[in-house]
Design a protein that fits this description.
Blueprint lengths: L4 H7 L40 H13 L4 E5 L2 H8 L8 E5 L4 H13 L3 E5 L4 H7 L4 E7 L11 H10 L3 E5 L4 H4 L9 E5 L13 E5 L2 H14 L5 H11 L2 H21 L3 E5 L9 H7 L6 E6 L2 H10 L4 E2 L9 E3 L11 H7 L5 E5 L5 H12 L1
Parallel strand pairs: 2-3, 2-4, 4-5, 5-6, 10-11
Antiparallel strand pairs: 1-7, 6-7, 8-9, 9-12, 11-12
The chain binds pyridoxal-5'-phosphate.
Amino acid sequence: MAFAAETICVQGSNERRDPFGAISMPIYQNAAYAHPGLGKSTGYDYSRCGNPTRDEVQKTVALLEQGTEALAFSTGMAAITALMEIFSPGDHLIATDDLYGGTLRLWNTISHKNGISVDCVDTSNVETVKAAIRPETKAIYLETPSNPMMKVADIQAIAELAHAHECLLIVDNTFLSPYFQKPLTLGADIVVHSGTKYLEGHNDTLSGFLVVKDDALYQQLNNIYKTTGACLSAFDSWLLLRGIKTLAVRMEQHQKNALAIAHWLEQRPEVEKVYYIGLDSRPDKALIDRQCSGYGGMISFRLNSAEKAVKILESVKLIRFAESLGGVESLLTYPMKQTHADVPVEVREALGVDEKLLRMSVGIENIDDLLADLEQAFA
Ligand SMILES: *Cc1c(COP(=O)(O)O)cnc(C)c1O
């Protein structure tokens, strides 16, 4: 029986494994499993290769993304690093130009050394992506909405393009979570998550996921996973399960608060531009409403001066000046100095990531309290 997202969040795979009927999935803090006999297994032999608590979070995330299998990693970067092992020297990838700084650092340093090249282009334009395809291109890698400029790529159109050229489509779905966007249903082959963000949702646990819908791809990735070993611990798997239980209600509240803050920012004379995918004024609104079932809680905005941006960062009290995103607490980030510190200045500025740009991960606090904090920080 197929359940709705809210039910999957709360109930997980709904496979009642616990012999004592525990409602909360037990934490199998365990490395090795006894064999019932020669050549027999309970299904578990060694926790790097499989752990019941981790299996449950993997099944839950796979169900939420409408994939068949998921792999849970110790961090989002561990997931992306393992994913890069499916490529070989000489392979070429096309990626969103405006994406998570750590992913870019991985490609520029480690992948580059391994002979894999990545071209970052504006993936909000399908023609630009098409023009970047070469005979050796093996995958297209999207972040949509992008970070921090909130550009949206047409997943379905790019999936068709990728498949016409025998390329994989990979989508980092961290920003919207499967509650608001399901790339596998739009043609993507692999979904990436930093589970540290909305999935876990409480700014306290790192994790990463790869989700697929194709068995051969799963076997290939699972083999890399078991071999390289950056798997999520039982305790952190349990924290993820606990976080995911409230994903649906959190996402609704993040979005409600973000819409109110985006509208408030639009009215402020100090704000030059607001970047939020929930704004009706966006030219790509039709695509957003076709592709996503909600807009999430991530907003970027450009102030009319660098001094103002810095003053706001240093004046917020309830909202914290910190990196990361997707947790219940509201955070304000200075992308130029934090997430994009490693991106070359010319590239960063061409993207619009300058000293006047701030990014806010809107939490689930009371909206009047958040607006009052912004009001005093802007004053
Ligand atoms: C944070 C983040 C990552 C990296 O995840 P970690 O859990 O920090 O390793 C990758 N992609 C996006 C979009 C992120 O926000």
